[in-house]
Amino acid sequence: MESIGVHMLLCAARRRCSYLVSSLGSGRDDEDLVVPTSGGRYDVHLKKRQRVAVYWDEEVSEVRRCTWFYKGDKDNKYIPYSETFSEELEEAYMVAVTLDEWKKKLESPSREIIILHNPKLMVHYHPAAASDDWGSTPTEQGRPRTVKRGVENIAAEIPNGEPLQIDHLVFVVHGIGPACDIRFRSIVQCVNDFRNVSLGMLQAHFRRAQEQQQIGRVEFLPVNWHSSLHSTGVDVDLERITLPSINRLRHFINDTILDVFFYNSSTYCQTIVDTVASEMNRLYQLFLQRNPLFTGGVSIAGHSLGSLILFDLLTNQKAGPEEDERSPGGSRTTPSSGGAEEVKEILQKLELSEYCDVFEKERMDPQALFLCTERNLKEMGIPLGPRMKILHYISSKTEMQDQNAAAPGTASPSQRDPDGTGDGRDCQYRDVGLGQVSANYPQLNYKPTIFFAFGSPIGMFLTVRGVKRIDPNYSLPTCKGFFNIFHPFDPVAYRIEPMIVPDLEFEPMLLPHHKGRKRMHLELKEGLTRMSVDLKNNLLGSLRVAWQSFTRGPLPAVEAPAADAEAESDTSAEKQPDTKPEEPPVAKEETPPPINVGRLNGGNRIDYVLQEKPIESFNEYLFALQGHLCYWESEDTVLLVLKEIYQTQGITPDQPLPGSQ
What we know:
This protein is an alpha/beta fold. It folds into 4 domains: 1-17 and 31-64, no CATH class; 67-129 and 141-161, no CATH class; 166-317 and 441-517 and 594-649, Rossmann fold; 343-401, Transcription Factor, Ets-1 (DNA polymerase, domain 1), CATH 1.10.150.50. 40% of the residues lie in helices and 13% in strands. It is built from 24 helices and 19 strands. It has a 7-stranded parallel sheet. It has a 6-stranded mixed sheet with strand order 1-2-6-5-4-3, with no helix packed on it. The longest helix has 32 residues, at 520-551. It is globular. Residues 1-5, 9-18, 131-140, 324-337, 405-433, 555-563 and 579-589 have low confidence and may be disordered.
């Protein structure tokens, strides 16, 4: 329970009360006595009476040892007095009890009067209001406040605390700007909401596993890169060139929208990826220091631009040696003599044999050649004309790779991978003139289990960079799980699966509602759509039969009965094709064929769409912004994250969710 920005030490966790009291009352030095609270994310320094955040920067808050409280007639909770004044109240109370002398009056620091009538009746009076300019005083001072000693019988919802066992760790990276939701809250506050929702979902859907002590909880830690980016002095430079008109709008754009352009700048992109990677590595090491018994896995989640940053980091991670050995090209670090010969053949084909010594000196193999940019060639001393020839060759080969990969079942490994590495990773080729900013991507100290993207523009950025299709055989080097979660009205979110299977149109997976069914308005909409389709098919069938009977010639009146029977059989044969084609679509809709979306998520579906709320379905434009910022408090999103995390440990929800894989 928090009040007026103060954390109440004894009321906040009743399980620690006896420990704290004994620690405070002991004769040892309390300066080094630190008590972890809030799941280990905060430390309370008892002697300093301070509450300090462990994993992120936050203003230090005051902690009070609460013994005396007051509550007004309009207050919904008790508010603690300061420790100094509580000691005065306690001293006066003990004197009154010892001497049995009541009606004691004390004056609070704000010059308010507290009267101790008896042990069960103690009141706090407001100060007398001064007369106004007309010389009159208020006739009503309001009812006095109730004063209470001790924490017994205080009707306050004090949480029992979080489970001590941590099964999994998730790092959450924010998107553009310092605010992450419609209420302009920071990433720390939004992740706190996400964590609280996860605790509720665990109790609701994993109760059996909790009762059997198979699971504890999942820890979510925020990763902030915006403050580091804007502490480089770029804000001062922007301020000098910003026009003075519409000042608030321009300041908002400089602080939020420009983050997208910063990430597409080679200078600031390096700052961003360095900050994100180093912060996640720092948090990981600090978490292991504070939780030495932790043996669970680590996953990462990104919102908006944060998901793109994580995707670029993951695509540039180095796989383990055992994974490199599986590729036909063997080790990628040592260029072979055969690779140098291939580069020499390419240069001879381009009539640039005089530069073979330059490329051989730089130990250039085909893979390194296809990663070269114009800047690299210029630094090697290659003149403009030969540079253009080499870049044109690289670009044409890259386009041929995409065309071959786009034809399913026809591209051989050598066609998809002309540089001989055998990697089969088409996403990698966006470095070859396809738009990704050149940066030195740091390596993470762990291999993420799953990558969750919320409201992600990854698909759009890959398309803008020139990646037409993702190879179905491609997977992130160190992360085998990838989920793209989005709201249907999110204007920033884009799909991933159509880039893997471009020739097939199919809907994203509908994320199951956390209560186990579709929202009623969606079921009603589907029912009406199905009914209208059936009515349309029946009407068209009736019109078709009527038109066929109208255009058929008149039958002779004196025709034999055999001819009549033959005509009836012809008529039934004509009607039969009208009814048969209507049945297969219904069967296909009930049992859709499985869709192969490649290895990016281990063969499982990637795109998941949330169910909009009934009020959101009235006007999708009004709720577009809310759709991009809704993930922090979305029970459906949190439940999918928990389900996929615990599925890696062989633990499933109490009741299987409809529509889930």
